[in-house]
Design goal:
Layout lengths: L2 E5 L2 E4 L4 E8 L8 E6 L5 E7 L6 E3 L7 E6 L4 E6 L8 E8 L14 E4 L3 E6 L1
Parallel strand pairs: 2-11
Antiparallel strand pairs: 1-3, 3-8, 4-5, 4-9, 5-6, 7-8, 9-10, 9-11
């Protein structure tokens, strides 16, 4: 399994922006799709965004399309999530995750396909 460490969460007003980073170690980063998930209080964990191992494809939840951007730097073993136009309903703990299957040909939306998880970082959006 990989070790994943998120950073960049915090408190922001509605309409503001935040950027999250996730540094990975322990596996060949460039071989695995990376994803961001989130979990709000009292709710289940949900897919936010994912990026294929080579960066060639990205996927987003409908709720964040046009506002969030996922990217990766395989030379730095890091995946990013830029969040713009934040809304109070974006408040959650955000988790970075790595697919458990190398070179998966598509970006999975399913948390069960991700075998390594970070500790999470809190994002709070005030109204």
């Amino acid at each position: 399994q990989a070790q994943l460490v998120e950073s960049g969460g915090g408190l922001v007003q509605a309409g503001g922006s935040l950027g999250l980073s996730c540094a990975a170690s322990g596996r060949t980063f460039s071989s695995y799709t990376m994803g961001w998930f989130r979990q709000a209080p009292g709710k289940g964990r949900e897919f936010v965004a994912g990026i294929k191992y080579n960066g060639a494809r990205t996927e987003y939840a409908d709720s964040v399309k046009g506002r969030f951007t996922i990217s990766r730097d395989n030379a730095k073993n890091t995946v990013y999530l830029q969040m713009n136009s934040l809304k109070p309903e974006d408040t959650a703990v955000y988790y970075c995750a790595q697919d458990q299957t190398p070179y998966r040909p598509f970006v999975s939306f399913k948390s069960n396909d991700f075998g390594s998880w970070g500790q999470g970082t809190q994002v709070t959006v005030s109204s």
